[in-house]
């Protein structure tokens, strides 16, 4: 799509694929949508997918697969150990990253469990550009401390900075000088920082981090789950790499880490995960935990069908027309939302469009979970399911108070190659209407709250009967429209 010029449109995200398999969708009437979100305890994770019109919860395991991936799923070699499927996947990972060793796992957080178990000691600090929910949970479970050393721009909702995911090198150096190398478990780099709006990290910054860590003898662990989008931003925004082949950029990135792990629900557009390494010593440190938690070391809890699909999915990630689809579609969605005045994170990153819930609902206090309220209101208004990426996604402080998130976001994920432009326009239109009527939306409170990762299965309820007012206004304006 990057090479096609039109007479009228600029930045039209033309799909460089065609859709040959479809899944029927339904949009429930608004009264049923209200019942559904009430039944789900105002938590979009607990909605049934049949009650959702556009599922923008996540891209995890929901990206569209290619014809070649589906075809590859027909040729798995099922064996408990030593299957040819494993060797095909291993080779594909090696070719992709340039790494030598590979351990398969059932998904991304399983890699985090193993890495944290092996490398995090109680009281140690893990510096990183930004935490991810499951990463922090695993590090904390081992008694480790997450320290976010992001640059000032990272949590600046509207910024000119193209690489908000960069680590502040000054902060990293100061931390190591203050705490000493022994106190650091490893430095973690997350590509396409999920929780601050899918914001990319520059390759320049990754190289600086690696250079410093080599000097200090620190290990670098890279979470490359969101590599595809980050690659697009490096290729298009980092001048030095504009003419470099995507495969060469991937290998340059990989060289910045000692251990690379990924959720193949994201990278590779299937369902699984894995850890890649250059050196055998890391493989040996972690190897024995794979049969303990995941399955034998030649399948790691994955189905062989998915492994075949991941192998092809990695190869396809080297195609610019594949990696640009997500970010360019997200940019188009962002433009539509902005045309209605909806406050979003800019520059738009990868993964999805991120609405600034604090600005959208400036009358709802942080302790009443504006992002979670807005997710519920969006579902009621248009049947689209987003994900809370704010205070509900943080667990409480040790003293029981809410840990107020630095950014309070509604993430509307766009799984790659799944939605059409008219669906995006529909969502933006309804969210635009909601923005005009935002004062009708109130806050939420927990009615059932797990101690860890509460956002997954916790239940909430409105603090005031605001949903009734919202439905009344919807019916006044849209009549009996779905
Ligand atoms: C950056 C990042 N790391 C790790 C994970 C965990 O991966 P999984 O959901 O496969 O366990 C995710 C999932 O969304 C992620 O976005």
Provide structural commentary:
The protein is α/β, with parallel strands linked by helices. The chain folds into two domains: 30-59 and 322-478, Aspartate Aminotransferase, domain 1 (Alpha-Beta Complex), CATH 3.90.1150.10; 67-319, Type I PLP-dependent aspartate aminotransferase-like (Major domain) (Aspartate Aminotransferase, domain 2), CATH 3.40.640. A five-stranded mixed beta sheet has the order 2-8-7-6-5, sandwiched between helices. It has helices spanning 30-39, 67-72, 84-97, 108-119, 133-141, 169-179, 203-216, 227-237, 246-254, 280-287, 289-293, 304-316, 320-323, 325-339, 357-360, 370-382, 421-436, 454-457, 466-478; strands at 54-55, 101-105, 125-128, 145-148, 187-190, 220-223, 259-263, 273-277, 352-356, 384-385, 387-389, 409-413, 444-448, 459-462. The chain binds pyridoxal-5'-phosphate. Pyridoxal-5'-phosphate (PLP) is lined by residues 60, 107-109, 132, 134, 190, 194, 223, 225-226, 263, 265, 273.
Write the layout of secondary structure elements.
Elements (H helix, E strand, L loop, with lengths): L29 H10 L14 E2 L11 H6 L11 H14 L3 E5 L2 H12 L5 E4 L4 H9 L3 E4 L20 H11 L7 E4 L12 H14 L3 E4 L3 H11 L8 H9 L4 E5 L9 E5 L2 H8 L1 H5 L10 H13 L3 H4 L1 H15 L12 E5 H4 L9 H13 L1 E2 L1 E3 L19 E5 L7 H16 L7 E5 L5 H4 L1 E4 L3 H13 L4
Parallel strand pairs: 1-10, 3-4, 5-6, 6-7
Antiparallel strand pairs: 2-8, 7-8, 9-12, 11-12, 13-14
This protein binds pyridoxal-5'-phosphate.
